[in-house]
Specification:
This protein has two domains: about 10-20 and about 230-425, Enolpyruvate transferase domain (UDP-n-acetylglucosamine1-carboxyvinyl-transferase, Chain); about 20-230, UDP-n-acetylglucosamine1-carboxyvinyl-transferase, Chain. It is about 30% helix and about 25% strand. The protein has helices at about 20-30, 45-55, 90-100, 125-130, 165-175, 195-200, 235-245, 265-270, 315-325, 345-355, 385-395, 420-425; strands spanning about 10-15, 35-40, 60-65, 70-75, 85, 110, 135, 145-150, 160, 180-185, 210, 215-220, 225-230, 250-255, 275-280, 290-295, 300-305, 325-330, 360, 365-370, 375-380, 405. The protein has a four-stranded mixed beta sheet. The chain has a four-stranded mixed beta sheet with strand order 3-4-2-13, with helices on one face. α1 runs parallel beside α3 (about 90-100). The structure holds ligand SPQ. Ligand SPQ binds near residues 20, 312 and 313.
Length: about 425
């Protein structure tokens, strides 16, 4: 499709779509809890709908009246063998977290997804779950999907030092650990998003967190809750950057979730000299607020270490931001980007360079030399929603030529109303 280009001002207010990570987990906790869970502001993006369908296939009654999702949980033992293989679509969160839940269920489940899921590493989840007593197998003796998992009611607790900083791996182990008999201890490599830990408490369970050390006792039972999902800072990120780099702009983003494990992009914008204000508002379950950005002069910075998991999904759009900053920006310690929906290090460098950026891909990140004007080109999202949205924001700066995006449909994975929201800012 041809992207919107050559915008000289963006102004307005956007209600950010609901948080993807929290939407997935609200269905999962609803399904394993006893009693009814209601979910308001559920994200009806493709990924979260894959999670919803997967739990329906596992025998959980889930209704959607168009406003509220209602999950009728019957505890872990309410999950029943699925008649067919579960299709997780494009969603890494669905396949990895569901494996932790299925590790404690005494039946076999097959899981598959799209061509991107078939390339995402699964040993990071399969190895710890296998050591707890589940039997997980990848396709053709590899670690890649389609996968088979046979769970057991006799899961052993685990003491596990995580080799990667990953909220998905941590969450999968937590879902298994809450079904095991005894105490499990998980040590994180770096602190990652903690929505699973928050929901354990919210659904009436217990968990102890001391910095990077997590202790959880199993078995635990959970009670159905009323959940309201806040807006997703990872979706807000595209319009934060749009407002900072497009001339004459002022954009307000309402109801953005501000869990501190997710707000690394705000720190980066401030360090680069961007004008951003954060106004916290009351939200039922999670910290949230209004973020306002205005067009800014930016400077290059270094981004690495503990902040990386706090902005891992924002790195493609941060790379675009850096192309419009004076000087060099270095992103390091971000090798996890290579195993997302696509290799995001290569994709960002290749596609933005086609548009005139000066970006060097490295083993664990990117070196971005700014400030560079951008021009028209034929680009692709590689089927990765975040690459697709980043390229649309880049196109806004293009004055000459057009930007043609291949595989734009991937954007509906996390932000189905992305183009409609963008449209509101220049009408
Ligand atoms: O679900 P999926 O496909 O893995 O989604 C992504 C994304 O960009 O939306 C990653 F590609 O987000 C992950 C995130 O990178 C969602 C997530 C979570 O909800 O727990 C955690 C992060 O992944 P990881 O591998 O670091 O645990």
């Amino acid at each position: 499709m041809e992207l919107v280009s050559n915008k000289t001002a963006l102004n307005g207010i956007i209600n950010v779509p609901s948080d993807k990570s929290i939407s997935h987990r609200s269905i999962m906790f609803g399904a394993i809890a006893e009693g009814t869970t209601t979910i308001k502001n559920f994200l009806r993006g493709d990924d979260c709908l894959s999670t919803l369908k997967a739990f329906q296939d596992l025998g959980v009654k889930i209704e959607d009246d168009g406003t509220v999702i209602t999950v009728y949980g019957n505890g872990f033992s309410g999950l029943q063998p699925a008649n067919e293989a579960l299709n997780v679509g494009n969603s890494g969160t669905t396949i990895r977290l569901i494996m932790g839940i299925l590790a404690g269920r005494p039946f076999t489940t097959k899981l598959f997804g799209d061509h991107s899921i078939a390339k995402r590493p699964m040993n990071r989840v399969m190895l710890p779950l296998n050591s707890m007593g589940a039997v997980c197998q990848g396709h053709d003796h590899t670690e890649f999907p389609p996968l088979t998992i046979t769970g057991t009611e006799k899961l052993q607790p685990i003491a596990y030092e995580m080799p990667v900083a990953s909220a998905q791996v941590k969450s999968a182990i937590l879902f298994a650990a809450m079904q095991a008999h005894g105490e499990s201890v998980i040590i994180e490599k770096e602190k990652t998003r903690d929505h699973t830990e928050d929901m354990i408490r919210q659904f009436g369970g217990t968990i102890d967190v001391f910095g990077k050390e997590i202790r959880i006792q199993g078995p635990q039972t959970f009670i159905g809750q009323e959940i309201t999902v806040p807006g997703d800072i990872s979706s807000a990120a595209f319009f934060l950057v749009a407002g900072l780099i497009t001339p004459n702009s002022n954009i307000q983003l309402k109801n953005v979730g501000l869990n501190p494990t997710r707000t690394g992009i705000i720190d980066v914008i401030e360090q680069m000299g961007g004008t951003i204000t954060v106004e916290e508002t009351a939200h039922a379950d999670n910290k949230a607020g209004t973020l306002t950005v205005t067009t800014s002069q930016l400077n290059g910075i270094e981004i690495g270490g503990e902040i990386i998991p706090r902005l891992i999904d924002e790195l493609p759009i941060i790379a675009l931001l850096a192309t419009q900053a004076e000087g060099t920006t270095i992103i390091r310690d971000a090798e996890e980007l290579k195993v997302k929906e696509t290799n995001r290090i290569d994709a960002v460098a290749k596609e933005l360079n086609k548009m005139g950026a000066n970006i060097e891909p490295t083993e664990d990140g990117l070196i971005i030399h700014g400030k560079t004007p951008l021009h028209g080109a034929k680009v692709t999202s590689y089927g990765d929603h975040r690459i697709g949205m980043m390229l649309q924001i880049a196109a806004l700066l293009v004055k000459e030529g057009t930007v043609e995006l291949e595989k734009a449909e991937a954007i509906s994975v996390s932000y189905p109303s992305f183009f409609t929201d963008l449209n509101k800012l220049y009408q």
